[in-house]
Design brief:
By secondary structure, the protein is mostly helical. It has helices at 2-16, 20-27, 45-56, 60-71, 74-77, 81-97, 100-113, 122-134. It is globular, with a radius of gyration of 14 Å.
Length: 135
């Protein structure tokens, strides 16, 4: 359990402090169990956190690769909070890559997942503003 959670917490802190390279380095020990599921697991948190670090570095292709690890495994992670958030991360990664068509589709998929959410949630409002810029 500590093999995943401690590196994730430290990586989130490093990313927020503007040290995404350190965040990526901190997550490396958890790579071998990053997609683990079951009791005590933290489903998808490692690739999700790594994806956020790559987004902060403006590395769209690397960020997309990490978010796809989660989105492509819907059967494992559909109930994990990181799943829908990875869909948004994927949209943002495609924007960084200049792929507006794929970004629009990813945003639409995110909105479909959040269709019943309170429209005042800041993250949802941010996503809608970002999506509008693609139109």
């Amino acid at each position: 359990m500590n093999l995943i959670r401690k590196p994730v917490v430290l990586a989130i802190i490093a990313t927020r402090e503007g040290k995404p390279d350190e965040a990526i380095r901190l997550l490396e020990p958890a790579r071998r169990v990053e997609l683990g599921v079951g009791p005590g697991a933290a489903p998808a948190l490692v690739p999700y956190t790594r994806g956020l670090a790559y987004l902060s570095k403006k590395e769209g292709a690397n960020a997309a690769r990490e978010f796809r690890k989660i989105v492509d495994r819907r059967y494992l992670f559909a109930s994990a909070p990181a799943f829908s958030l990875s869909q948004l991360g994927l949209a943002r990664a495609y924007v960084l890559q200049g792929d507006s068509a794929r970004a629009r589709t990813a945003y639409q998929d995110f909105f479909a997942m959040w269709k019943d959410a309170d429209s005042e949630i800041p993250l949802l409002k941010e996503a809608k503003v970002e999506y509008a810029k693609l139109q």
